[in-house]
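I'd like us to work through together how a protein chain folds, taking it slowly. To get us started, please write out a protein record for me. Go ahead whenever you are ready, and we will take it from there:
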Amino acid sequence: MSQSLAAAGTAAVPLAELALAGDLARPTRLTVPDLLAWPQHEADVSFECATSGVRHHRFTGPLLHDVLSAAGPGFDPARRKDRMRFLIAVTGGDGHHVLLSWAEIDPDFGRAPVLLAATIDATPLDRAGPQLVLPQDRCGARHISGINAIRVDGGYTSWT
C-alpha cells in the first residue's frame, strides 16, 4: 500500500470523544489530544483480574479532578461542604459504568489520584478513547476503557 493510501486510511478513523455534561458551567467534548494538553501525571498500576491474573501497566494523563474543575462544577464555592453532594458517573463505550463521589477526588478530602489516562504503556489512546484509572484500587473493576461520557450530578433528590 502506498504511503498516501495508508495515511488516508488512518485519517478516516475519527478520534474518540469524551462528553463532559451535567451540573457544569462549561460542558464540553474532549479528545485524547485535548487531554494531553493538560499537566500529565503517571501511574504504575497492578490490577488483579479475576479471569487473567495480575496486569501491570503505566498510564499517563491529567487528574480527573483538574479536568472536571475546569468545566465549572455547579457547587456553591462559598459553602465548602456543598461539593460533597456531587456524584460523578463515568461511562465507557462498552456500556461499563462507574460512580464516584466528588469527595473521593477532591484534594481537600479523599485526594484520590484518579486519572483520565491518555496513554497506556506509552501508547496514545487517540482512537480507543481515554481510560479511567484508579491507581489505589487493587482490582480493576472501576477501570473504564474508552470513556465516552462523564456526568457530574449534584441535583439528585434525597432518598428520605
About this structure: The chain has four helices and eleven strands. Confidence is low (pLDDT under 50) at residues 1-8. Helices lie at 3-11, 32-36, 64-70, 102-105.
